[in-house]
Specification:
Largest sheet: 7 strands, parallel
Radius of gyration: 20 Å
CATH class of the largest domain: Alpha Beta
Distance between the termini: 44 Å
Strand order of the largest sheet: 3-2-1-4-5-6-7
């Protein structure tokens, strides 16, 4: 069987690293790097740390497109042209996740290719999220959908997906975190923050609200807030001087996978709108506060590993709920 994988962003390469190994062992596996995350140095770090082999083909999505529709336009042409030019006739094309690289599954489906989706069935039911649109479309056109939990399978069946097409396989991040789990005593003298989703960066006013919230958490706990750099956030900070007068927030990173895993492990708590943190932090034994109204990973909230606090509520309410959750999660850590 000939299997093509198309992956484009660093978090998805992390999740796919063990899958790549199994595909190489058992099938004719052709790996295509879409180049959506195109920082060469950062990409090299992730490949080296996780011992991911060199892709068979690397495209240049990030360099040739500036936004989501240019990325889809570029990929829709380049991937189909590549398959045709190299006479690659895969039995199935596998995607993971909800990035713009995954949405190219739609034009490939229209061309008659068989599609598989790992990380299917996730739903936040928040249509503001571009990721939500991407994952719904990829699920819809997929012949095979591999989901993390039975709940995700139930959701797909409710959306009229044939149950015979859906397979509960568990979460691919588990083996990776277990293999690279940090060891030793935890410092637990800082709070780690990762704010990068569109609903929190849509305008400088909303991002300022998030920074005011982080500063207040730092002030009340007396802890430094290590805020991971994200390009759109840094642009807001520099243009509107959003960190002026703020003493507790420190911009850090970006990091490779192992360094970031170590940061999470040593944090008193994590504040993150990232879906990945809601999966990694429970495995690391660290509580995570999610400044969003909805999550596509409800199991993390239901099991007491994370809490949703919204993103536009009064700062004092967000702060009080955050600190209370961290304090009550000490035994969990």
């Amino acid at each position: 069987m000939k299997i093509v994988t198309i992956t484009g962003i660093r978090p998805d390469f992390i999740r796919m690293s063990k899958v790549f190994e199994k595909l190489d062992e058992n099938f004719e596996h052709i790996m295509i790097h879409s180049g959506q995350h195109y920082n060469d140095e950062l990409s090299k770090i992730f490949f080296q740390e996780l011992k991911i082999r060199k892709p068979d083909y690397t495209l240049a999505t990030g360099l040739n497109s500036r936004n989501h529709y240019e990325q889809l336009s570029y990929l829709s042409k380049e991937i189909i042209y590549l398959l045709q030019r190299k006479k690659i006739n895969p039995d199935i094309i596998l995607f993971l996740g909800d990035s713009n690289s995954a949405i190219v599954s739609a034009p490939l489906f229209k061309e008659g290719y068989k599609i598989g989706h790992i990380e299917g069935g996730m739903r936040s039911y928040d249509r503001r999220m571009p990721e939500e649109v991407n994952r719904v479309i990829c699920d819809y056109v997929s012949d095979l959908v591999f989901v993390y939990t039975p709940l995700y399978k139930e959701r797909l069946i409710a959306e009229n997906k044939d149950p015979k097409q859906v397979f509960v396989v568990g979460n691919t991040i588990v083996e990776i975190v277990k293999q690279y789990m940090p060891k030793g005593n935890r410092s637990r003298d800082f709070i780690l923050a990762d704010i990068h989703r569109n609903e929190n960066l849509k305008n400088p006013e909303q991002y300022k609200h998030m920074l005011d919230y982080l500063e207040s958490v730092g002030k009340k706990t007396g802890m430094e807030i290590k805020l991971v750099r994200f390009n759109r956030g840094v642009k807001h900070i520099e243009k509107y001087k959003l960190l002026s007068g703020k003493k507790y927030i420190k911009l850090v990173g970006p990091y490779g996978f192992l360094d970031y895993l170590d940061l999470q492990y040593n944090a008193y708590g994590v504040i993150s709108d990232s879906g990945t943190s809601q999966e990694e932090c429970p495995l690391l034994g660290v509580p995570v506060v999610v400044p969003r109204k909805r999550t596509e990973r409800p199991e993390s909230v239901e099991n007491g590993n994370s809490i949703l606090i919204g993103e536009d509520r009064p700062v004092n309410k967000m702060v009080n709920e955050t600190i209370s959750f961290f304090e009550n999660s000490i035994s969990f850590v």
